[in-house]
Design a protein that fits this description.
Helix content is 41%, strand content 22%. The protein has an 8-stranded mixed β-sheet with strand order 5-8-2-1-11-13-14-12, sandwiched between helices. Strands 3-4 form a two-stranded antiparallel sheet. It has a two-stranded antiparallel sheet with strand order 6-7. The chain is built from 10 helices and 14 strands. It has 283 residues and is an alpha/beta fold.
Length: 283
């Protein structure tokens, strides 16, 4: 790449950096982008760059494969009910250890290596996430739904120049609860009146033909979503992700983005370029 091309890229990014100056962006980080060390560093590089450009970035992370690995080490078979991890007391201990311990601290360490400042939090810190066990005929164990979000501790970290790295564990009435990371990221974005919610996934975005990348739907409004679900364009595991985005936008987030976390620097391309790479859902 020539110096002129580099300068053109920086010039294209400038108005977006100005637009998002001191605005809040919540990034839900998980999936394949967490499994590859190369992709992990690319994602964290994007986040550090945005932070150094005075964009308030909050990271909400998952860690399903790592939880499964530790459960395997102790001879416990992971169990899922309707796509949700069944979480008994022993599994909850592992979830806390892996998410709030290993993954959160590892990601904060990479941020520091790349020149940023980070602090690892879980939803029980500072009363951030309060939840209740999922109720109904099906027993999911210690799986919860969020009842309230208090982002004061997250704002304090941002105000002092830190990137908050948040694991999705909530305080319940008598125990810690395991919370879906997409849902937690969307609820936090809404509570913080964020400019953007970004979900990193293992697909390009929403495509009218899931086997053809050229059919990517780059921009959608809330009113487009019901027909896409009815017609089967949005289906299976994409439905809860889209519903999370829709709820966040309805509650005040300016736009929600579904990006392919397997693409290096997808966050920067989506936020700081004219073209973008994923699907944006807005009002």
């Amino acid at each position: 790449m020539s110096n002129l091309s580099r300068a053109a890229i920086l010039s294209e990014a400038l108005p977006y950096i100005q637009k998002f100056h001191k605005k809040t962006v919540v990034v839900k980080y998980g999936g394949a982008a967490m499994e590859s060390e190369e992709l992990k560093r690319a994602v964290i590089t994007d986040i550090v760059l945005l932070s150094l450009a005075s964009i308030r970035v909050v990271v909400v992370h998952g860690g399903g494969p790592e939880i499964n690995a530790v459960l395997g080490q102790i001879g416990k078979e992971p169990k899922f009910v309707n796509g949700l991890r069944y979480t008994d007391d022993e599994t909850m201990d592992v979830v806390q250890m892996v998410l709030a311990g290993k993954i959160g601290k590892d990601l904060a360490g990479i941020v520091h290596e790349l020149g940023g400042r980070a602090i690892s939090l879980c939803g029980a810190d500072g009363g951030l996430f309060h939840g209740e066990k999922l109720s109904g005929d099906i027993d999911y164990g210690l799986v919860g739904e969020l009842k309230s979000v208090d982002p004061e501790c997250v704002n304090m970290a941002l105000d002092n120049g830190y990137i908050p790295i948040i694991s999705t564990i909530a305080q319940g009435s008598d125990s810690m609860l395991n919370i879906n990371a997409d849902t937690a990221a969307g609820a936090l974005a809404a509570a913080m009146n964020a400019e953007k919610l970004i979900l990193l996934t293992d697909v390009r975005g929403i495509m009218s033909d899931p086997h053809d990348d050229t059919t990517l739907l780059a921009s959608l409004t809330l009113s487009d979503i019901p027909a896409l679900i009815k017609n089967g364009v949005i289906k299976k595991g994409m439905i809860p992700k889209v519903e999370c985005c829709v709820e966040a936008v309805r509650r005040g987030v300016n736009s929600a983005h579904i990006l392919d976390g397997r693409m290096p620097h997808s966050i920067l391309v989506e936020m700081l370029s004219d073209s973008g790479v994923g699907t944006m859902i807005g009002r």
